[in-house]
Amino acid sequence: MKKLTLHTIKQGGNKVEQHRPRWMRLDNAAKIYPAAKRKNWSNLFRVSATLNEPVDPEVLQSALAVTAKRFPSIVAGIRRGLFWYYLEEAKAPKVKKDVAYPCAGMYFPQIRKCAFRILYYENRIAAEFFHALTDGNGGLVFLKSLVAEYLTQKHGAAISNIDGVLDRAQEPAPEELEDSFLKYQGEVSGSRRETTAYRLTGTREKHGFLHLTCGILDVGEVLAKAKSYGVTLTVFLASVMIAAIAEIQNERVPVRKKQKPVKILIPVNLRNFFESATLRNFALYVTPGIDPRMGEYYFEEILKAVHHQMGYELTKKNLNTKITSNVKTEKNPVLKVMPLFIKNFAMKIAYNLFGERKACITLSNLGAVRLPEEMRAYVERFDFILGVQKTTPCTCGVLSYNDKLYINFIRNIEEPVLEQKFFTRLKKLGITAKIESNLSAYQ
Fold first, then answer.
1. In a 3-state reduction of DSSP, which class is residue 19?
2. Better-scored residue on pLDDT, 30 or 442
3. Pairing state of beta strands 14-20 and 5-11?
4. What is the Cα–Cα distance from 265 to 285, expressed in whole angstroms?
5. Strand runs labelled E in 220-336
């Protein structure tokens, strides 16, 4: 591993020497991703911004060169050490035209060199990240800052460094690079035991092709419907998803006693509960759901179950017990001195046995995207896309921008059953979505 090196920057006309890391340990949540990766699968996610004009790739490359220096924990490759993988700061990659499907496989030689990529297509700028680098929040901050730099260079726009847009001329603050899991380790550990959930299946697409379906909705309309039930937007969407999957299981497994729980994995941004400015991973998850073996659930019952389960789980104390469990495992003295190849073997087995069995699908809501006033006239749209998992064929990414809610389903199977049932249920609730896909007119 390379040691810390000195960087010289100017402040008020004076040269100031600062320490800046050339390498960093992976954060607590990131350690599983390199071990769980397979030759034909890598855990990626995408955030993208659609502008009101075609993207200039030369200006985008120049903007990336400037922005990359501000994010050493994201513009990095994943390297193999004796005991753990680690991040090594990398050069900004070459921007490429977006000619494939979203979140196409990233092979380990690419991840070792630089574990993210910048793509452009017509009016769209997309950033795709290997999840060991950062979470959705960190990825969105990076994209906003990149787009701000692009607009500054392209149009001379004077953009305020607010709403997640960072000053590209500044050095990163130490708290942006910290592993906040270690900072908030407590005394009491929580249980990780969970029941196995129903697994969606289908005909696997050849050559790794990924189908993308985006539903565009009026966010005010969805929020009003959620409010009418007394729940949040995330609880409402998760409940619709659970109802859709329960319907699929009823059709495929008609004997109720043979059915399995229907649960949704929902990532939780821990920055909403613990003070942190980290740009690295700082998220956990909850898995609300129902057990259909107990009988048929009406939609209102699902809403109530999800609302109360999330209300119980999403408290600072409960989340702290989960943080503590994860950190204590990492700090286990036996595990710390275990060579990496043995750790990899153990983590692969653990991931195969338990990693994706706790939920039917991941539904991640990045929330409302806000921009400085100076950027809004140039940016028409944002999207958030989660890559499919190793054994679960569908995932769902959600965010809102201006007055629109964007719900992106991605799948590696031929059958669009889940998307159809999900949007059909929304329509029955009085909410109509405009549907796009990468087989027709996506973005």
1. strand
2. 30
3. antiparallel
4. 6
5. 262-269, 283-286, 289-290
The pair of structure tokens assigned to 324 is 């503590």
pLDDT at 20: 56
What is the C-alpha to C-alpha distance for residues 87 and 103, in angstroms, rounded to an integer? 21
DSSP state of 38: B
What does the DSSP 8-state code read for residue 388?
P
Calpha distance 197→287 (Å, rounded) = 10
Reported as a single tens digit per residue, the pLDDT across 221-256 is: 999 999 999 999 999 999 999 999 999 999 999 999
Sign, CA torsion 109/114/115/116: negative
pTM over 0.85: yes
pLDDT tens, position by position, 316-342:
999 999 999 989 888 888 777 778 777
- Mean pLDDT across the stretch 78-100? 91
Contact 356, 392 (CB under 8 A): yes
> Which one-letter amino acid corresponds to residue 378?
Y
Query: For residues 269 and 251, what is the distance between their CA atoms, to the nearest angstrom?
Result: 35
CA gap 89, 72 in Å, rounded = 6
Rg (CA), the chain: 22
Token output for 362: 């991941």
